[in-house]
Amino acid sequence: MHCPFCRHPDSRVIDSRTSDDGLSIRRRRQCPECGGRFSTIETASLNVIKRSGVIEPFSREKVMSGVRKACQGRPVTEGDLAMLAQSVEESVRQTGSSQVDTNEIGLAILGPLRELDEVAYLRFASVYQAFDSLEDFESSIAQLREDHPREERAQD
User: Fold this and answer.
1) Over the stretch 3-57, which tens digit does the pLDDT of each residue have?
2) What is Dmax (Cα atoms) for the chain?
3) Left if phi > 0, otherwise alpha if psi is -120 to 50, otherwise beta: which for 130?
4) Within 13 Å of residue 25, how many CA atoms lie on the same side as its CB?
5) Which letter does DSSP use for residue 130 in this model?
């Protein structure tokens, strides 16, 4: 690690601590040349293999962007989206693999999105799972009703 002050090519680790989320390590370093101290944050890399075969780093922002479209007009906040993206990243990292397909990320999104907003879930699932017909929607809605039966309200 190059010193940010004098560009010396080496530094010494003084202290290491795991971050609050447990996904990164904060290291306090000191340059043996100039004595300057600085911090670094280390995370395990997680790469996404896109359908085209291109490999790029995982991005919570891209998860939020995709889900944001499905949540348009729904009572979902940016904070909700950030929590969903964090949940998706954590579940993908738990696979233990450093490279994941976009398909796995889509599957990881469906569960938390369903808990967050069922309408947004249907919108996302219809695109992600390439619904072709009304039967696909009906099947998905039937599954939602089966999992979360609603009390029928008597009308006067």
Assistant:
1) 999 999 999 999 999 876 677 899 999 999 999 999 998 888 899 999 899 999 9
2) 82
3) left
4) 11
5) T
